[in-house]
Amino acid sequence: MDARFQLDPTVTFLNHGSFGATPVAVLAAQRAWQDRLEAEPVRFFLRELPPALAEVRARLGAFLGADPDDLALVTNASTGVNTVLRSLEFASGDELLTTDHEYNACKNALDFVAGRSGARVVVVEVPFPLAHASEVTERLLRAVTPRTRLALVDHVTSQTGLVFPIAEIVRALEARDVDVLVDGAHAPGMVPLDLAALGAAYYTGNCHKWLCTPKGAALLHVRRDRQAGIRPLVISHGANAPLDGRTRFRAEFDWCGTSDPSAWLAIPTAIDHLASLVPGGFSAVMRQNRALALEARDLLCAALGVERPAPDDMIGALAALPLPDGDGVYPPPLYLDALQERLWLEHRIEVPIIPWPRPPKRLVRVSAQLHNTRTDYEKLAAALLSLLR
Questions:
Q1: Which CATH number fits the domain that encloses residue 324?
Q2: Which among 45, 240, 254, 348 is most buried, taking Cβ atoms within 10 Å?
Q3: Rounded CA separation 288/343 (Å)
């Protein structure tokens, strides 16, 4: 196992996509921030934290192609999705659009706000396997009606590991006066991003996945013309603080009460550290991870005798492929297929077996990050063949 990461060397870790893995150097940076906080909490929170967070937003903005003042720091993408959905007002009969690839937690948030207002959630079925990325856009557009108010769309799907053609989707839906909330949980650090050019009304993404920050670091990008309507989930001092040149959006999101901000403050270190690990910087990291994911997919397809389920241009650093049906029993709230448990218990392989689109149908999804090698996927292929006989 790669000593640059604090991962158990006895485990073949193929599930970076769920919660990430933080390099040792980035964890050290987080601890340094925590030590600084505890040395003098009042000095830290009142004098040192505001400029430090401004620097984080500046670095993150440069990395993601965003104006720092259009970024809010949140704890995870689910929080970002909830922040937008629970700020907006919908009426009875309004339609909220999403796909059947949407992450369950965020779909639950969509159902919650729809149920509260009498709006209707319209779920578009996107096939998997599929032949062309354009199928996603076409199916979404066919579902748009005069009552469509918002679309919640993945940039990179969690269950199926697909990179949706998000620029095309945003452009097409905005042309029909439908705002898009992009669930970009997996995108920062996996695929190149230019949020200003993308132009989505709302975009949220995690930093703890492919940027490898500590857990509890994520972003919410709100287009300038939509910021007045978006409030943090916690209303605090920023609601009536003097603005001193800031927007109310900036004042409210910069302080939502006392918390440990060290995961956010470690973001610049994470960007710099990962960029230093591969010649060519962070763009080379993304290319290397994608190449490994494609190699892993092809290796597993050949071993299991299945066709590639999606075109290469829809693969980032995740790849999923169908397995024979399971028993369809998954304890809540997170699924643990019996095959997933046997891979862990008998082979020390950590990889998700995902019920999709619904039990007993299921997928195996692999991740590719700098701590992975081809040998990891060869081990998985051999284990799957032995367990699926």
A1: 3.90.1150.10
A2: 254
A3: 26
Cα atoms in the 13 Å half-sphere on the side-chain side of 207: 31
Given 238, 271, 304, which residue is the final one in a domain?
Answer: 271
| Residue 241 tokens, joined | 């603080």
61, amino acid identity? G
231 and 302 share a domain? no
Q: Spell out a b/e string for 241-267, using b for 16 or more CB atoms within 10 Å of the CB, else e.
A: eeeeeeeebbbbbbbbeeeebbbbbbb
Encoded tokens for 96: 């909220």
Over the stretch 83-109, which tens digit does the pLDDT of each residue have?
A: 999 999 999 999 999 999 999 999 999
Based on the fold, state whether residues 43 and 58 are members of the same structural domain: yes
Distance (Å, whole) CA 19 – CA 185: 11
Residues in a beta bridge with 150: 96, 179
DSSP track, 237-283: GGGTS--TT--HHHHHHH-SSS---HHHHTHHHHHHHHHHTSTT-HH
Pair of tokens at residue 210: 């492919």
Task: Answer yes or no: is 276 within a domain.
Answer: no
Pairing of strands 202-206, 218-222: antiparallel
Q: Whose structure tokens read 């060290």?
A: 262
Q: How far apart are the C-alpha atoms of 33 and 143, rounded to whole Å?
A: 48
Residues 70 and 132 placed together within one structural domain of the fold: yes
pLDDT single digits (tens) 322-364: 999 988 666 555 667 889 999 999 999 999 999 999 888 999 9
Looking at the fold, whether 229 and 362 belong to one and the same domain comes out as no
Query: Is-contact 61 219, C-beta < 8 A?
Result: no
Cβ contacts of 2 within 8 Å, gap of 6 or more: 370, 371
**Which one of 271, 294, 309 terminates a domain?**
271
Residue range of the domain that includes 106: 27-271
Say how many domains are in the chain.
2
Q: Clarify whether residues 266 and 286 are in a common domain.
A: no
The H or E element that residue 329 is part of is: none
